[in-house]
Amino acid sequence: MTTTSLPTADPPGVPAGAAAAPGPSLSPSRAADFMTCPLLYRFRVVDRFAEAPSLAATRGTVVHAVLERLFDLPAAERTLSAAAGLLEPEWARLLDAEPELADLVAGEGGSDPAELLTGALGLLERYFELEDPTRLEPAERELHVSTMLESGLTLRGYVDRLDVAPSGDLRVVDYKTGRAPTEGFEAKALFQMRFYALVLWRLRGVVPRQLQLLYLGSGEVLTYRPDEADLLATQRKVQALWAAIARAAESGDWRPNPSRLCDWCDHQARCPAKGGTLPPLPELGPDLTAAVLPVEADEPSPRMPVDEV
Asked: φ, ψ for residue 9 (rounded to 5)?
């Protein structure tokens, strides 16, 4: 077990991992938004424009839910057949919470989730090619983690799965329902995992031994072994990102950053880089920085298509 000194980033009198007071917070998804495109961050966090759900992202949400529920079963019963049997109940549960998703699967005769569930089953089949869940006993699933930095910024997020070995070694596992990134485009995915590892290090005093991404869309596994230097660098990067977001909030300068991900963006009609009309900033009151750096809603499992690219 790798136990090391904690990063010296907590405010005086606040131990690492203490419950965060209300204030600004950042998740890996929102940090990735700002790195991808500051204007996208503005549209999601400041303007809070609604975004249409996609079939692929909704299918991913169902698959995440099934993989979480699968481990409620006794080990010997965690079969592909059992996972397949969870698909319709989890889709019904999601639909009950978000009835508008019915429009995604509406066929001529009404609601027809066949395409969604067939695609989800294919992803589950690939999961069983990558892992044998009968041999696993996760310590945590959909684990909410948060910790406060000395700047007052809370880092928070949801870990899909945390495995703890008898030795105390930690393995952080994240399910991706898209395809693995091509060589040279792995940084975004690894940043997310280092972010989680940093928070867990601060909470538990242990540097996770392994970070693992399971890409169910392509049947590939991306594994990384972080060290203390990695996580300290991640903390510096997160703090720098927060400073950049605060500067954008003060100046009102949320610049677009065109890339291939624009093809998946719901906001092209509002984006000047795509010939759209940029709406005025909403009235946010005197404390501009606090208004655009809110405590984030606790929402597990990314749902946006670009999060799975």
From this structure: -125, 5
Assign 225 to helix, strand or coil.
coil
Q: Where are the domains of the chain?
A: 25-49+138-279+288-308, 55-135
How would you write 253-284 as a 3-class SS string? Answer: CCCCCCCHHHHHCCCHHHCHHHCCCCCCCCCC
What is the number of residues in the chain? 309
Domain 25-49+138-279+288-308: state its class. alpha beta
Cα separation, 177 vs 184, in Å, equals 20
Instruction: Give the CA distances from residue 218 to residues 39, 59, 108, 159, in Å, rounded to whole numbers and listed in that order.
Output: 30, 15, 31, 21
Q: Report if pTM > 0.90.
A: no
Q: Which residues are CB-neighbours of 295 under 8 A, at least 6 positions away?
A: 22, 23, 24, 25, 154
Quote the CA–CA distance of 191 and 36 in Å, as a whole number: 12
Q: How far apart are the C-alpha atoms of 149 and 145, rounded to whole Å?
A: 13
CB 220 within 8 A of CB 25: no
One digit per residue, pLDDT tens: the chain, 309 residues?
433 333 333 332 234 444 444 578 899 999 999 999 999 999 998 899 999 888 889 999 999 999 999 999 999 999 999 999 999 999 999 999 999 888 888 754 445 788 899 999 999 999 999 999 999 999 999 999 999 998 888 999 999 999 999 999 999 999 999 999 887 677 878 999 999 999 999 999 999 999 999 999 999 999 999 999 999 999 999 999 999 998 998 888 999 999 988 988 999 999 999 999 999 988 765 555 555 554 444 444 334 443 443
First CA to last CA distance, the chain: 33
- Rounded to an integer, what distance in angstroms lies between the CA atom of residue 199 and that of residue 147? 6
